[in-house]
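Recall that a protein's primary structure is simply its ordered list of amino acids. Everything else, from secondary elements to tertiary packing, is in principle encoded there. The following example makes that idea concrete.
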Amino acid sequence: MRSKPSIYSQGRVIEQATILDPGTGTGMNAYTTSWRQVSLKDTGCILIDAGFGADNRKAVEDKIIIQELMFLPRDLLWKAVSLTYAEGVELLRPVQIDPRFLKFRNYALKHHVPFTVVSCGLDFIIQEYLAWHLGDESKITILANYGKVIGDKWLVTYRDDSPYTHDKSVCIKQAKQAFSDKSDKIPGQEHIIVFCGDGISDWSVTRKADILFARRGLDLEKYCRKHKIPFIVFDTFDKVTATVQGLTEGTLTVAEVNCRSECAN
């Protein structure tokens, strides 16, 4: 029988990586790298588009993709938002959560898999959104930029000075180090980084994840195809759930998953 792996994806509270499931002996972390994986629309883009304009935002993103711009004009985007907190919340209320994400989240809870949302969005907006759909005890860790609203001004403190306001590869480095430092590792236990993303802010981690999921038709998939980086295209969290379950239960290996990935050869 295959030894069951320890699965890590990116996250904020790395010490959670030491949590062991007493039933399986499997340490796990799971992460999504983009808020758009959880909600059916990007809540940050909705807010920015209300002030900056969707066409203007997409034009900026297109310039980054062709490397005409090397940095997101961070201050320009959020300074264009002129909504009160109540007005912003009202815009986001209709945005639905991906029902298949709820299935994944329930699987993660059942199998003691700490799950983290890693985002270039604003922490308090993500917290509010999760509370609407999952209650205050959502048990999901959030790693995002810090923000607050004063009047109709949206003030953002960014996590770092990286080009896309949040270097998500830091999470992977921390997860790898946390696993390396563990004193109670099970002999033969694997350390696996699973990464789910969709956009340009996810580019920094594409060559660092063991298994990379890219949302179909979005910028991360295009980037991976252009640079021949192996990835698994996905439309819903069902594929993510099935893969993580297989890795956890020992019916799949990283090599088997990546053999089926795009750009694998």
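The first strand starts at residue 6 and ends at 8. The radius of gyration is 18 Å.
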